[in-house]
Every structure is written in C-alpha cells, then in structure tokens.
Backbone:
C-alpha cells in the first residue's frame, strides 16, 4: 500500500492532501504505472477519513491523467506527474481565456500560431 500521511493542521482540504500524497507516491516511484491502488474504502479506513474524501481525490487525479478507473479492475496508475501538471495548467489557461472572452477555437488558433 502506498504511504499517505495527512496533516489535520494543514489548511488544505483533506481530499487535496490525499491527492497530493498520491501524486508524491507516483513521482517517487512508490506507485508505478500499471499498478492498482487499494480500494477507496480501504484507503479511507487507513487514513481515518470518509471514503467520499478519497474518491474525490482519486477523481481529481483521474482528471489530471494520473489515474484510470476501470469497472471491475479498480483504480490504476497510468500517467506521470508531469502530465498531470501540464493538464492542470492547460485547464487554468482555458479558464483564463474564457474569462477574457476567448473561446476554445480562438485559443487553439493562438497556440497554433506559437510554433
């Protein structure tokens, strides 16, 4: 099982702490690509948090491209932390562009023009 430590005194939400610790585990090779993670309820029991907290962290990491959910097979590591960081920054860029009146097509044109 991956080693996850939470800090109750940390101001970050618990799900963010869980996600950060799993990211760290992936970055340090503790959880490798293709490896299955323990079920969310088991992780929650070990961490002393609600299973929904763990599920929220796992969904965040799935959205970052680090984890994959497969029916009947659980949650597996599929990506590297760098990919997750790029995806996060991309989402931030898309949101920034939206706030400034640019749609996705216009943003793609801007990015394509950078080559």
Residues:
């Amino acid at each position: 099982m991956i080693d996850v430590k939470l800090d109750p005194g940390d101001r970050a939400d618990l799900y963010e702490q869980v996600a950060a610790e799993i990211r760290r585990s992936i970055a340090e090779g503790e959880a490798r690509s293709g490896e299955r993670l323990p079920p969310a309820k088991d992780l929650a029991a070990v961490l002393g948090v609600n299973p929904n907290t763990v599920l929220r962290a796992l969904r965040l990491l799935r959205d970052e491209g680090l984890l994959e959910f497969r029916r009947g097979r659980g949650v597996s590591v599929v990506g590297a932390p760098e990919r997750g960081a790029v995806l996060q920054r991309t989402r931030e860029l898309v949101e920034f562009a939206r706030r400034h009146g640019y749609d996705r097509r216009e943003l793609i044109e801007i990015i394509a023009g950078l080559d």
DSSP finds five helices and two strands in the chain. The mean pLDDT is 86.
